[in-house]
Amino acid sequence: MLHPNAITHCVSGMATSAWHDTLDKTKRWPLHDVQATRHIEQQAQSALPFNTLMQRAGLASAQLALAIAPHAQRIWIACGPGNNGGDGLEAAAHLKQWGKTPIVTCTTPREKMPADAQRAWQHAERAGVHFEQTPPDAFDLALDALLGMGCHTAPQGVLAEWLQRLHHTSQTVLHIDIPSGLLANTGEWLGKPAVVTSADKRHTLSLLTLKPGLFTADGRDACGEVWFNDLGVDSSHTPPNAWLQTHVHLLHERQHSSHKGSYGDVMVVGGTTGMAGAAVLASLAALHAGAGRVYAGLLDTNAHAAVVAAHPALMVREVEHLDFKHATVVCGCGGGDNMREVLPRVLSTAPRLVLDADALNALANDSQLFHLLQQRANKKQSTVLTPHPLEAARLLKRSTTDVQRDRLAAAQALAEISGCVVVLKGSGTVIAENARTPIINHSGNAKLATAGTGDVLAGLIGAQLANTDDAFEATCEAVYRHGALADAWPEDGSSLTASQLVTAIR
Predict the structure, then answer these.
(1) Where would you tag: which of 271, 273, 332, 350 has the fewest CB atoms within 10 A of its CB?
(2) What is the pTM of this model?
(3) Are strands 101-106 and 130-132 parallel, antiparallel or unpaired?
(4) Domain 7-241 is of which CATH architecture?
Protein backbone atom coordinates (compact mmCIF):
# COMPACT_ATOMS: atom_id res chain seq x y z
CA MET A 1 0.00 0.00 0.00
CA LEU A 2 1.30 3.42 -0.87
CA HIS A 3 1.55 5.94 1.93
CA PRO A 4 0.05 9.45 1.69
CA ASN A 5 2.41 11.82 -0.07
CA ALA A 6 4.40 8.95 -1.49
CA ILE A 7 5.89 9.41 -4.92
CA THR A 8 5.22 6.78 -7.49
CA HIS A 9 6.95 6.66 -10.82
CA CYS A 10 5.41 5.11 -13.88
CA VAL A 11 7.23 4.44 -17.10
CA SER A 12 5.34 6.03 -19.97
CA GLY A 13 3.21 3.86 -22.16
CA MET A 14 2.68 0.99 -19.73
CA ALA A 15 -0.71 -0.59 -19.40
CA THR A 16 -3.10 0.40 -16.65
CA SER A 17 -2.27 -2.62 -14.57
CA ALA A 18 1.39 -1.66 -14.62
CA TRP A 19 0.99 1.35 -12.33
CA HIS A 20 3.09 0.34 -9.36
CA ASP A 21 5.59 1.68 -6.88
CA THR A 22 8.84 1.81 -8.81
CA LEU A 23 10.32 4.78 -6.98
CA ASP A 24 14.07 4.52 -6.80
CA LYS A 25 14.67 5.40 -3.16
CA THR A 26 18.42 5.37 -3.56
CA LYS A 27 18.52 8.75 -5.27
CA ARG A 28 17.26 12.27 -4.97
CA TRP A 29 14.58 13.32 -7.42
CA PRO A 30 15.16 16.42 -9.56
CA LEU A 31 12.62 19.23 -9.26
CA HIS A 32 12.13 21.67 -12.13
CA ASP A 33 10.31 24.97 -11.94
CA VAL A 34 7.91 26.26 -14.59
CA GLN A 35 10.59 27.91 -16.70
CA ALA A 36 12.77 24.80 -16.75
CA THR A 37 9.76 22.57 -17.44
CA ARG A 38 8.71 24.78 -20.35
CA HIS A 39 12.20 24.48 -21.77
CA ILE A 40 12.09 20.69 -21.50
CA GLU A 41 8.62 20.70 -23.07
CA GLN A 42 9.72 22.85 -25.99
CA GLN A 43 12.74 20.66 -26.65
CA ALA A 44 10.57 17.55 -26.65
CA GLN A 45 7.88 19.08 -28.87
CA SER A 46 10.45 20.04 -31.48
CA ALA A 47 11.56 16.42 -31.69
CA LEU A 48 8.12 14.75 -31.63
CA PRO A 49 5.07 14.75 -33.93
CA PHE A 50 2.38 17.35 -33.21
CA ASN A 51 0.25 16.69 -30.14
CA THR A 52 2.37 13.74 -28.96
CA LEU A 53 2.95 15.05 -25.44
CA MET A 54 -0.73 15.85 -24.91
CA GLN A 55 -1.72 12.41 -26.12
CA ARG A 56 0.73 10.80 -23.73
CA ALA A 57 -0.44 13.02 -20.88
CA GLY A 58 -4.08 12.15 -21.53
CA LEU A 59 -3.31 8.43 -21.68
CA ALA A 60 -1.29 8.56 -18.46
CA SER A 61 -4.07 10.47 -16.71
CA ALA A 62 -6.73 8.01 -17.83
CA GLN A 63 -4.60 5.03 -16.78
CA LEU A 64 -4.02 6.46 -13.34
CA ALA A 65 -7.70 7.33 -12.98
CA LEU A 66 -8.58 3.67 -13.46
CA ALA A 67 -5.81 2.58 -11.10
CA ILE A 68 -6.89 4.79 -8.19
CA ALA A 69 -10.64 4.39 -8.70
CA PRO A 70 -11.20 1.18 -10.66
CA HIS A 71 -14.91 1.01 -9.85
CA ALA A 72 -15.70 4.61 -10.76
CA GLN A 73 -18.23 4.92 -13.58
CA ARG A 74 -19.38 8.56 -13.75
CA ILE A 75 -16.24 10.66 -14.02
CA TRP A 76 -16.36 14.45 -14.01
CA ILE A 77 -13.50 15.98 -16.00
CA ALA A 78 -13.19 19.73 -15.43
CA CYS A 79 -11.24 21.29 -18.32
CA GLY A 80 -9.76 24.76 -18.43
CA PRO A 81 -8.77 27.03 -21.32
CA GLY A 82 -5.22 25.82 -21.98
CA ASN A 83 -3.21 22.70 -22.58
CA ASN A 84 -4.09 21.33 -19.16
CA GLY A 85 -7.67 21.23 -20.38
CA GLY A 86 -6.44 19.43 -23.50
CA ASP A 87 -4.84 16.76 -21.29
CA GLY A 88 -8.22 16.27 -19.63
CA LEU A 89 -9.98 15.97 -23.01
CA GLU A 90 -7.53 13.30 -24.16
CA ALA A 91 -8.12 11.44 -20.89
CA ALA A 92 -11.88 11.66 -21.43
CA ALA A 93 -11.56 10.04 -24.87
CA HIS A 94 -9.66 7.06 -23.41
CA LEU A 95 -12.04 6.63 -20.48
CA LYS A 96 -15.02 6.59 -22.84
CA GLN A 97 -13.35 3.98 -25.02
CA TRP A 98 -12.73 1.85 -21.92
CA GLY A 99 -16.41 1.77 -21.00
CA LYS A 100 -16.58 4.60 -18.48
CA THR A 101 -18.94 7.58 -18.52
CA PRO A 102 -16.82 10.73 -18.60
CA ILE A 103 -18.73 13.99 -18.27
CA VAL A 104 -16.70 16.95 -19.51
CA THR A 105 -17.22 20.58 -18.56
CA CYS A 106 -15.10 23.25 -20.25
CA THR A 107 -14.59 26.84 -19.20
CA THR A 108 -13.74 27.89 -22.74
CA PRO A 109 -15.24 27.26 -26.20
CA ARG A 110 -13.20 24.94 -28.41
CA GLU A 111 -12.23 27.68 -30.88
CA LYS A 112 -10.53 29.70 -28.12
CA MET A 113 -8.30 26.85 -26.96
CA PRO A 114 -4.74 26.17 -28.24
CA ALA A 115 -4.41 24.12 -31.42
CA ASP A 116 -3.36 20.89 -29.71
CA ALA A 117 -6.19 21.24 -27.17
CA GLN A 118 -8.65 21.70 -30.06
CA ARG A 119 -7.33 18.48 -31.54
CA ALA A 120 -7.91 16.76 -28.18
CA TRP A 121 -11.49 18.10 -28.15
CA GLN A 122 -12.07 16.46 -31.53
CA HIS A 123 -10.72 13.17 -30.19
CA ALA A 124 -13.16 13.35 -27.29
CA GLU A 125 -16.10 14.11 -29.57
CA ARG A 126 -15.25 11.22 -31.90
CA ALA A 127 -15.04 8.90 -28.88
CA GLY A 128 -18.59 9.90 -27.90
CA VAL A 129 -17.70 11.88 -24.77
CA HIS A 130 -20.63 13.75 -23.26
CA PHE A 131 -20.17 17.52 -22.74
CA GLU A 132 -22.12 19.57 -20.16
CA GLN A 133 -22.28 23.25 -19.28
CA THR A 134 -22.23 22.63 -15.53
CA PRO A 135 -20.69 19.95 -13.30
CA PRO A 136 -22.80 16.85 -12.72
CA ASP A 137 -24.72 16.60 -9.47
CA ALA A 138 -23.20 13.20 -8.75
CA PHE A 139 -19.94 11.57 -9.81
CA ASP A 140 -17.59 8.82 -8.60
CA LEU A 141 -14.31 10.45 -9.55
CA ALA A 142 -13.20 13.92 -10.63
CA LEU A 143 -10.25 14.94 -12.83
CA ASP A 144 -8.94 18.46 -12.33
CA ALA A 145 -7.65 19.72 -15.68
CA LEU A 146 -8.47 23.36 -15.16
CA LEU A 147 -5.29 25.37 -14.88
CA GLY A 148 -2.09 23.34 -14.66
CA MET A 149 1.19 25.08 -13.96
CA GLY A 150 0.57 28.12 -16.15
CA CYS A 151 -1.73 29.87 -13.69
CA HIS A 152 -0.58 33.30 -12.48
CA THR A 153 -3.74 34.98 -11.17
CA ALA A 154 -6.34 33.91 -8.65
CA PRO A 155 -9.18 31.92 -10.25
CA GLN A 156 -12.38 33.88 -10.79
CA GLY A 157 -15.94 33.17 -11.92
CA VAL A 158 -16.67 29.67 -13.19
CA LEU A 159 -13.09 28.56 -12.52
CA ALA A 160 -13.38 29.51 -8.87
CA GLU A 161 -16.79 27.86 -8.56
CA TRP A 162 -15.59 24.57 -10.03
CA LEU A 163 -12.47 24.60 -7.90
CA GLN A 164 -14.59 25.03 -4.79
CA ARG A 165 -16.56 21.99 -5.88
CA LEU A 166 -13.36 20.00 -6.37
CA HIS A 167 -11.93 21.13 -3.03
CA HIS A 168 -15.00 20.13 -1.04
CA THR A 169 -16.12 16.93 -2.71
CA SER A 170 -15.94 13.73 -0.72
CA GLN A 171 -15.12 11.78 -3.87
CA THR A 172 -11.65 10.94 -5.14
CA VAL A 173 -9.96 13.73 -7.10
CA LEU A 174 -7.07 13.37 -9.54
CA HIS A 175 -5.24 16.62 -10.29
CA ILE A 176 -3.57 16.55 -13.70
CA ASP A 177 -0.05 17.93 -13.39
CA ILE A 178 -0.78 20.15 -10.36
CA PRO A 179 -3.81 21.13 -8.25
CA SER A 180 -5.36 24.07 -10.05
CA GLY A 181 -4.63 27.34 -8.30
CA LEU A 182 -1.45 26.06 -6.64
CA LEU A 183 1.77 27.70 -7.83
CA ALA A 184 4.09 25.08 -9.24
CA ASN A 185 7.27 26.85 -8.16
CA THR A 186 6.38 27.69 -4.57
CA GLY A 187 3.41 25.66 -3.34
CA GLU A 188 1.45 28.84 -2.59
CA TRP A 189 -2.28 29.02 -3.28
CA LEU A 190 -3.32 31.84 -5.58
CA GLY A 191 -5.89 33.99 -3.88
CA LYS A 192 -7.48 32.79 -0.66
CA PRO A 193 -5.81 29.61 0.63
CA ALA A 194 -7.91 26.59 -0.18
CA VAL A 195 -9.25 24.30 2.52
CA VAL A 196 -9.22 20.85 0.98
CA THR A 197 -11.47 18.15 2.44
CA SER A 198 -10.90 14.41 2.14
CA ALA A 199 -7.15 14.86 1.72
CA ASP A 200 -6.71 11.09 1.75
CA LYS A 201 -8.66 10.94 -1.51
CA ARG A 202 -6.40 13.45 -3.32
CA HIS A 203 -4.00 12.39 -6.05
CA THR A 204 -1.73 14.45 -8.27
CA LEU A 205 -0.12 13.21 -11.47
CA SER A 206 2.90 15.38 -12.17
CA LEU A 207 3.66 15.32 -15.88
CA LEU A 208 7.03 15.64 -17.62
CA THR A 209 8.80 16.89 -14.45
CA LEU A 210 8.30 17.03 -10.72
CA LYS A 211 7.70 20.60 -9.56
CA PRO A 212 8.99 22.12 -6.31
CA GLY A 213 5.60 23.48 -5.25
CA LEU A 214 4.18 19.98 -4.94
CA PHE A 215 6.35 19.31 -1.91
CA THR A 216 6.54 22.46 0.19
CA ALA A 217 4.31 25.17 1.68
CA ASP A 218 0.68 24.15 0.89
CA GLY A 219 1.74 21.62 -1.71
CA ARG A 220 1.65 18.45 0.34
CA ASP A 221 -1.82 19.17 1.73
CA ALA A 222 -3.12 20.10 -1.71
CA CYS A 223 -1.64 17.21 -3.68
CA GLY A 224 -2.33 14.19 -1.53
CA GLU A 225 -0.53 11.27 -3.11
CA VAL A 226 1.88 12.36 -5.82
CA TRP A 227 2.47 10.31 -8.94
CA PHE A 228 4.92 11.03 -11.73
CA ASN A 229 5.02 10.31 -15.46
CA ASP A 230 7.90 11.71 -17.51
CA LEU A 231 5.94 11.22 -20.77
CA GLY A 232 8.93 9.42 -22.22
CA VAL A 233 11.07 12.58 -22.14
CA ASP A 234 14.59 12.68 -20.72
CA SER A 235 14.96 15.83 -18.59
CA SER A 236 18.41 15.00 -17.24
CA HIS A 237 20.13 17.59 -19.45
CA THR A 238 18.27 20.44 -17.75
CA PRO A 239 19.68 21.30 -14.31
CA PRO A 240 17.10 21.02 -11.53
CA ASN A 241 16.06 23.99 -9.43
CA ALA A 242 15.98 21.79 -6.35
CA TRP A 243 16.21 18.15 -5.30
CA LEU A 244 13.59 16.13 -3.47
CA GLN A 245 15.05 14.09 -0.63
CA THR A 246 13.16 10.83 -0.15
CA HIS A 247 15.91 8.86 1.61
CA VAL A 248 19.30 9.19 3.20
CA HIS A 249 22.45 7.14 3.17
CA LEU A 250 24.00 6.92 6.61
CA LEU A 251 27.26 8.81 6.44
CA HIS A 252 29.15 6.62 8.89
CA GLU A 253 29.22 2.99 9.96
CA ARG A 254 30.68 2.23 13.37
CA GLN A 255 33.85 0.16 13.53
CA HIS A 256 34.43 -2.35 16.31
CA SER A 257 37.68 -0.62 17.20
CA SER A 258 36.04 2.78 17.70
CA HIS A 259 35.46 4.50 21.03
CA LYS A 260 33.48 7.45 22.37
CA GLY A 261 36.12 9.86 21.14
CA SER A 262 35.52 8.60 17.61
CA TYR A 263 32.08 10.18 17.39
CA GLY A 264 32.70 13.71 18.50
CA ASP A 265 31.80 15.98 21.39
CA VAL A 266 28.54 17.91 21.24
CA MET A 267 28.07 20.86 23.59
CA VAL A 268 24.56 22.24 23.98
CA VAL A 269 24.38 25.83 25.22
CA GLY A 270 21.00 27.12 26.35
CA GLY A 271 18.34 26.36 28.91
CA THR A 272 17.96 29.59 30.84
CA THR A 273 15.64 29.83 33.85
CA GLY A 274 12.37 28.07 33.15
CA MET A 275 13.56 26.73 29.80
CA ALA A 276 16.11 24.09 30.73
CA GLY A 277 13.93 21.46 29.08
CA ALA A 278 14.72 22.77 25.59
CA ALA A 279 18.46 22.33 26.08
CA VAL A 280 17.94 18.91 27.67
CA LEU A 281 15.88 17.76 24.67
CA ALA A 282 18.62 18.88 22.28
CA SER A 283 21.28 17.19 24.42
CA LEU A 284 19.39 13.91 24.61
CA ALA A 285 18.73 13.99 20.87
CA ALA A 286 22.45 14.36 20.20
CA LEU A 287 23.19 11.51 22.59
CA HIS A 288 20.58 9.17 21.09
CA ALA A 289 21.75 10.10 17.57
CA GLY A 290 25.23 8.78 18.31
CA ALA A 291 27.42 11.61 19.56
CA GLY A 292 30.34 10.24 21.57
CA ARG A 293 29.96 12.70 24.46
CA VAL A 294 27.32 15.29 25.11
CA TYR A 295 27.82 18.26 27.41
CA ALA A 296 24.75 20.17 28.55
CA GLY A 297 25.80 23.75 29.20
CA LEU A 298 22.70 24.89 31.05
CA LEU A 299 22.40 28.60 31.75
CA ASP A 300 20.06 27.84 34.65
CA THR A 301 22.56 26.52 37.18
CA ASN A 302 19.75 25.69 39.61
CA ALA A 303 18.62 22.96 37.22
CA HIS A 304 21.96 21.16 37.08
CA ALA A 305 21.39 18.72 39.93
CA ALA A 306 17.96 17.67 38.69
CA VAL A 307 19.23 17.10 35.14
CA VAL A 308 22.20 15.04 36.35
CA ALA A 309 19.90 12.88 38.45
CA ALA A 310 17.43 12.33 35.61
CA HIS A 311 19.96 11.94 32.79
CA PRO A 312 23.28 10.59 34.09
CA ALA A 313 24.61 10.04 30.56
CA LEU A 314 24.73 13.81 30.04
CA MET A 315 27.68 15.78 31.33
CA VAL A 316 26.20 18.92 32.83
CA ARG A 317 28.51 21.91 32.99
CA GLU A 318 28.46 25.64 33.53
CA VAL A 319 28.83 27.36 30.17
CA GLU A 320 31.95 29.29 31.16
CA HIS A 321 33.72 25.99 31.85
CA LEU A 322 33.09 24.58 28.38
CA ASP A 323 35.93 24.62 25.84
CA PHE A 324 34.34 24.99 22.40
CA LYS A 325 37.55 24.78 20.36
CA HIS A 326 37.26 21.11 19.41
CA ALA A 327 33.55 20.52 19.77
CA THR A 328 30.32 20.78 17.83
CA VAL A 329 28.17 23.37 19.57
CA VAL A 330 24.37 23.52 19.52
CA CYS A 331 23.39 26.96 20.74
CA GLY A 332 20.10 28.72 21.41
CA CYS A 333 17.62 26.10 22.62
CA GLY A 334 15.78 27.80 25.48
CA GLY A 335 18.53 30.37 25.77
CA GLY A 336 16.42 33.50 26.15
CA ASP A 337 18.08 36.90 26.20
CA ASN A 338 21.27 35.40 27.66
CA MET A 339 22.27 34.35 24.16
CA ARG A 340 23.65 37.80 23.42
CA GLU A 341 26.27 37.35 26.13
CA VAL A 342 27.25 33.83 25.11
CA LEU A 343 27.26 34.13 21.33
CA PRO A 344 30.46 36.15 20.77
CA ARG A 345 32.62 33.37 22.25
CA VAL A 346 30.61 30.63 20.55
CA LEU A 347 30.77 32.31 17.14
CA SER A 348 34.49 32.99 17.47
CA THR A 349 35.70 29.60 18.69
CA ALA A 350 33.36 26.72 17.78
CA PRO A 351 34.58 24.90 14.64
CA ARG A 352 31.13 23.41 14.03
CA LEU A 353 28.01 25.20 15.13
CA VAL A 354 24.22 24.76 15.05
CA LEU A 355 22.23 27.91 15.85
CA ASP A 356 18.58 27.61 16.81
CA ALA A 357 15.74 29.54 18.45
CA ASP A 358 16.95 32.35 20.73
CA ALA A 359 20.40 32.36 19.15
CA LEU A 360 18.75 33.21 15.83
CA ASN A 361 16.71 35.97 17.43
CA ALA A 362 19.87 37.45 18.95
CA LEU A 363 21.56 37.43 15.53
CA ALA A 364 18.56 39.14 13.96
CA ASN A 365 18.69 41.97 16.50
CA ASP A 366 22.45 42.56 16.64
CA SER A 367 24.41 43.49 13.51
CA GLN A 368 27.75 42.89 15.24
CA LEU A 369 26.79 39.33 16.08
CA PHE A 370 25.61 38.78 12.53
CA HIS A 371 28.96 40.06 11.26
CA LEU A 372 30.72 37.49 13.44
CA LEU A 373 28.45 34.86 11.92
CA GLN A 374 29.42 35.91 8.39
CA GLN A 375 33.12 35.74 9.27
CA ARG A 376 32.84 32.06 10.13
CA ALA A 377 32.58 31.06 6.47
CA ASN A 378 35.87 32.83 5.73
CA LYS A 379 37.51 30.84 8.53
CA LYS A 380 36.12 27.53 7.13
CA GLN A 381 33.99 27.03 10.23
CA SER A 382 30.78 25.09 9.60
CA THR A 383 27.53 26.72 10.68
CA VAL A 384 23.93 25.52 10.41
CA LEU A 385 20.94 27.82 11.01
CA THR A 386 17.59 26.20 11.81
CA PRO A 387 14.91 28.91 11.62
CA HIS A 388 11.19 28.46 11.44
CA PRO A 389 9.51 30.95 9.07
CA LEU A 390 9.18 33.74 11.65
CA GLU A 391 12.84 33.46 12.67
CA ALA A 392 13.88 33.43 9.02
CA ALA A 393 11.78 36.54 8.43
CA ARG A 394 13.56 38.36 11.26
CA LEU A 395 16.98 37.42 9.89
CA LEU A 396 16.01 38.52 6.36
CA LYS A 397 14.22 41.68 7.54
CA ARG A 398 11.08 40.52 5.76
CA SER A 399 7.61 39.42 6.75
CA THR A 400 6.71 35.83 7.50
CA THR A 401 4.27 35.98 4.59
CA ASP A 402 7.11 36.87 2.23
CA VAL A 403 9.15 33.92 3.47
CA GLN A 404 6.28 31.47 3.07
CA ARG A 405 5.40 32.87 -0.34
CA ASP A 406 8.63 31.43 -1.76
CA ARG A 407 10.35 29.15 0.73
CA LEU A 408 13.09 28.04 -1.66
CA ALA A 409 14.08 31.61 -2.48
CA ALA A 410 13.98 32.65 1.18
CA ALA A 411 16.21 29.78 2.29
CA GLN A 412 18.67 30.49 -0.52
CA ALA A 413 18.74 34.21 0.28
CA LEU A 414 19.50 33.54 3.93
CA ALA A 415 22.22 31.05 3.01
CA GLU A 416 23.83 33.65 0.74
CA ILE A 417 23.90 36.52 3.22
CA SER A 418 24.99 34.37 6.17
CA GLY A 419 27.42 31.97 4.53
CA CYS A 420 25.72 29.14 6.43
CA VAL A 421 23.72 26.01 5.76
CA VAL A 422 20.08 27.00 6.30
CA VAL A 423 17.26 24.72 7.40
CA LEU A 424 13.96 26.50 6.77
CA LYS A 425 11.58 24.38 8.81
CA GLY A 426 7.98 23.71 7.89
CA SER A 427 6.00 21.53 5.51
CA GLY A 428 8.63 20.52 2.98
CA THR A 429 11.64 21.69 5.00
CA VAL A 430 14.20 23.39 2.73
CA ILE A 431 17.95 22.89 3.19
CA ALA A 432 20.06 25.47 1.37
CA GLU A 433 23.73 26.41 1.10
CA ASN A 434 25.34 29.03 -1.07
CA ALA A 435 26.37 27.68 -4.50
CA ARG A 436 24.53 24.34 -4.00
CA THR A 437 21.19 23.23 -5.36
CA PRO A 438 18.71 23.30 -2.45
CA ILE A 439 17.00 20.24 -1.02
CA ILE A 440 13.32 19.85 -0.19
CA ASN A 441 12.90 17.16 2.45
CA HIS A 442 9.97 14.80 1.98
CA SER A 443 9.85 13.08 5.36
CA GLY A 444 7.79 14.30 8.31
CA ASN A 445 4.20 15.23 8.99
CA ALA A 446 2.00 17.41 11.19
CA LYS A 447 2.78 15.30 14.28
CA LEU A 448 5.94 17.41 14.53
CA ALA A 449 3.84 20.55 15.09
CA THR A 450 4.39 20.56 18.85
CA ALA A 451 6.75 22.30 21.25
CA GLY A 452 10.26 20.91 21.53
CA THR A 453 10.56 19.04 18.25
CA GLY A 454 12.76 21.81 16.88
CA ASP A 455 15.13 21.35 19.84
CA VAL A 456 15.31 17.66 18.99
CA LEU A 457 16.19 18.51 15.39
CA ALA A 458 18.97 20.85 16.54
CA GLY A 459 20.48 18.06 18.62
CA LEU A 460 20.21 15.59 15.76
CA ILE A 461 22.01 17.98 13.43
CA GLY A 462 24.69 18.51 16.06
CA ALA A 463 25.35 14.77 16.32
CA GLN A 464 25.58 14.38 12.55
CA LEU A 465 27.77 17.46 12.20
CA ALA A 466 30.18 16.11 14.81
CA ASN A 467 30.97 13.20 12.50
CA THR A 468 31.53 14.75 9.09
CA ASP A 469 33.20 17.66 7.36
CA ASP A 470 30.23 18.10 5.00
CA ALA A 471 27.78 20.25 6.95
CA PHE A 472 25.22 20.27 4.15
CA GLU A 473 24.97 16.48 3.85
CA ALA A 474 25.05 16.03 7.61
CA THR A 475 22.14 18.43 7.89
CA CYS A 476 20.18 16.70 5.13
CA GLU A 477 20.60 13.37 6.90
CA ALA A 478 19.48 14.76 10.24
CA VAL A 479 16.43 16.52 8.80
CA TYR A 480 15.34 13.36 7.01
CA ARG A 481 15.82 11.18 10.12
CA HIS A 482 13.84 13.68 12.19
CA GLY A 483 10.90 13.57 9.78
CA ALA A 484 11.09 9.80 9.37
CA LEU A 485 10.58 9.36 13.11
CA ALA A 486 7.23 11.14 12.82
CA ASP A 487 6.30 9.12 9.71
CA ALA A 488 6.93 5.90 11.63
CA TRP A 489 4.80 6.99 14.60
CA PRO A 490 1.74 4.74 14.97
CA GLU A 491 -1.45 5.92 13.32
CA ASP A 492 -3.52 5.26 16.42
CA GLY A 493 -4.63 8.79 17.18
CA SER A 494 -1.97 9.32 19.83
CA SER A 495 0.00 12.55 19.81
CA LEU A 496 3.78 12.73 19.48
CA THR A 497 5.67 14.71 22.10
CA ALA A 498 9.25 15.90 21.86
CA SER A 499 10.28 13.58 24.71
CA GLN A 500 8.83 10.61 22.85
CA LEU A 501 10.56 11.74 19.68
CA VAL A 502 13.92 11.67 21.44
CA THR A 503 13.49 8.13 22.71
CA ALA A 504 12.50 6.97 19.22
CA ILE A 505 15.86 8.00 17.74
CA ARG A 506 17.82 4.94 16.69
Answers:
(1) 273
(2) 0.94
(3) parallel
(4) 3-Layer(aba) Sandwich (3.40)
